[in-house]
């Protein structure tokens, strides 16, 4: 009987250089420790889908208000990673001259007309002006982008540093920030009386630091409540490099999308 049991056990055991199996169950070679299947034999859970990027209605770069000039369609992201220059959304990039309440308005309505404070965004770099601008198709034009804050109220909405750097100039209605990247950011029309209590020429600021509030200061002349924002960046052409005005729209699109996607800060 014992011999029969031994023969039966041998008949049910199959061995190979990789180990033995008995009745369909693997037997590890001596010296090896069997490893349990971490999945328990179940299929792996699929990776969660990537979140859809936040978007908002906006016209493409270079699509100026019809009749307001010839826009620059250069898609270059001239200031990658910059902070959107207003602290909070929503904000509305559009023309303050060709918008309602501007001197070239499309029809009746004041600067606080709801149509100025609504999407879609519209580029106005290279809008018709007499300022030299080599990045514009005609060599002259608006040197930045007009951005309205969330509401038509001045001295309320914060403006912030686009990147870490040094405040190099504070004029009667302008602030210049030289970023550590070598780019220069120019902010116009903030409330000067307030901003000089926050920043000073030669002061170092951090990315996202509050530097003033949107207003309508224009050195004694009238303008609408908006932030005029410019970027000057090193551009090389014909073997020479110069820091010049560059299209702002792509960088504003990129930074605004990141602002919209940022998690909300819990209330204190």
Which secondary structure elements does this structure contain, and how are they paired or packed?
Blueprint: H1 2-11, E1 13-16, E2 19-22, E3 25-27, E4 92-93, E5 145-148, E6 158-160, E7 165-170, E8 174-179, E9 184-188, H2 192-195, E10 204-205, E11 210-213, E12 227-237, E13 240-245, H3 249-261
Antiparallel strand pairs: 1-2, 2-3, 4-5, 5-12, 6-11, 7-8, 7-10, 8-9, 9-12, 12-13
What would you say this structure looks like, in words?
With 268 residues, the chain is of the alpha+beta class. It has a domain at 92-261: Distorted Sandwich (Glucose Permease (Domain IIA)). It is built from three helices and 13 strands; from the N terminus they run αβββββββββαββββα. The chain has helices spanning 2-11, 192-195, 249-261, and strands spanning 13-16, 19-22, 25-27, 92-93, 145-148, 158-160, 165-170, 174-179, 184-188, 204-205, 210-213, 227-237, 240-245. Strands 4, 5, 7, 8, 9, 10, 12 and 13 form an eight-stranded antiparallel sheet that branches. Strands 1-2-3 form a three-stranded antiparallel sheet. A hairpin with a 2-residue loop joins strand 2 (19-22) and strand 3. The radius of gyration is 31 Å and the shape is globular. It starts with a helix and ends in a 7-residue tail after the last helix. The relative contact order is 0.17. Residues 1-30 have low confidence and may be disordered.
């Amino acid at each position: 009987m014992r011999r029969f049991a031994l023969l039966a056990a041998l008949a049910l055991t199959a061995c190979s250089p990789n180990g033995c199996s008995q009745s369909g169950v693997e037997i590890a070679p001596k010296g090896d420790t069997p490893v349990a299947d971490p999945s328990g034999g179940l299929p792996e859970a699929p990776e969660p889908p990537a979140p859809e990027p936040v978007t908002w209605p906006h016209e493409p770069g270079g699509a100026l208000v019809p009749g307001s000039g010839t826009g620059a369609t250069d898609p270059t992201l001239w200031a990658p990673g910059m902070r959107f220059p207003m602290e909070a959304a929503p904000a509305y990039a559009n023309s303050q001259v060709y918008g309602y309440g501007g001197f070239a308005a499309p029809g009746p309505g004041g600067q606080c007309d709801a149509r100025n404070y609504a999407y879609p965004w519209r580029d106005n770099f290279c809008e018709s002006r007499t300022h030299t601008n080599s990045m514009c198709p005609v060599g002259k034009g608006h040197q930045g982008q007009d951005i309205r804050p969330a509401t038509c109220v001045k001295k309320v909405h914060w403006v912030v540093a686009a990147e870490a750097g040094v405040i190099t100039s504070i004029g009667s209605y302008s602030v210049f920030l030289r970023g550590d990247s070598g780019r220069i950011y120019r902010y116009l029309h903030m409330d000067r009386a307030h901003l000089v209590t926050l920043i000073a020429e030669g002061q170092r600021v951090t990315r996202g630091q509050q530097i003033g509030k949107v207003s309508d200061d224009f050195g004694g002349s009238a303008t609408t409540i908006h932030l005029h924002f410019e970027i000057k960046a090193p551009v090389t052409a014909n073997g020479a490099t110069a820091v010049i005005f560059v299209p702002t729209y792509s960088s504003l699109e990129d930074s605004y999308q990141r602002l919209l996607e940022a998690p909300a800060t819990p209330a204190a």
